[in-house]
Amino acid sequence: MTLQFVHHTRRPELWDRLTTEFAGVVPEYNLHGDINTGFWNRLFTDFPDHQFLLYDTAADTVLGAGRTLPRAWDGTPEGLGTGLDASIEAAFQDHDAGTAPDALCALGIEIAPAHQGRGHSSRLLAHMAAMARAAGLSHVIVPVRPTWKDRYPLVPIDRYAAWTRPDGAPFDPWIRTQVRQGGTIAASVAESSRITGTVAEWEAWTGMAFPDDGRYVFPGGLALLDIDRTHDRGAYWEPCVWITHDVRAAA
User: Fold this and answer.
1) Which fold has domain 3-250?
2) How far is it, in rounded angstroms, from Cα 99 to Cα 152?
């Protein structure tokens, strides 16, 4: 195995493999966020150097993907904002206005199903820290989608983020990994990423039927889905936990 980080500017064709090789890594509904329409494709036109893959050159295999954006941040928990959507919007506003960034915001760390459980997510996170240092940025900030939150969709995100194991480590595996790599839990946000669609779209995304108006638990959901059949609309806010990494300290 010969591992290499390959940025989109060098091998854009490798990203075409993610559609099949990374199928199921992210729940289907997460691919239809309201913010995606305006900004997602611009990641590769405006910030191609900030999108990268973990690539096994010997096996010609893509193991993981990392998506990031540089953005301004004042260093306070309040300045992190209300999660993923707001952070993406702020990053592009900063870019369009010529505002100098202070931090690198992680939008996603994904590992192909066949290669999970081998420490690759930690490698991608470490590479983000290296990218931030090389760009003169002080922090990597991560609006984390907790791994096990879908098991507890009725529990408020701030309570969930505070849970610990008997050894004192964070309960959630992904939060725990980041804390072990020097991250600090900075804030919890109940409304981080907005996803809306028709009832039929939500039924297709979740494999469930929603016969009546109301709030539903659904597969992969971190919180409840609001269904309004009268207006043919399903609406969901995905929560997040902000974790900050001071890459100057890591250096």
Assistant:
1) Aminopeptidase (3.40.630)
2) 39
Residue 109: closest CA among 66, 76, 144: 66
HSE of 240 in the Cβ direction (CA atoms, 13 Å)? 24
- The amino acid that residue 183 corresponds to is G
Q: For residues 7 and 95, what is the distance between their CA atoms, to the nearest angstrom? A: 19
Q: How far is CA 136 from CA 28, 61, 241, in A?
A: 36, 31, 25
90-98, long-range: CB < 8 A, 24+ apart? 92/39, 92/42, 92/46, 94/70, 95/46, 95/47, 95/70
Q: Name every residue whose Cβ is closer than 8 Å to that of residue 118 and which is 6 or more positions away in sequence.
A: none
Beta bridge pairs of residue 237? 194
CA–CA separation, 153 and 160 (whole Å): 10
Side-chain-side CA neighbours of residue 139 (13 Å): 23
Token readout for 152 is 């507890």
pTM of the model: 0.93
Listed by start position, the domains of the chain span: 3-250
Write the pLDDT tens digit of every residue in 161-187: 999 999 999 999 999 999 999 999 999
Q: Of 21-25, 62-66, 237-241, which range is least confident?
A: 21-25
Comparing CA positions, the residue from 54, 70, 68, 69 lying closest to residue 17 is 54
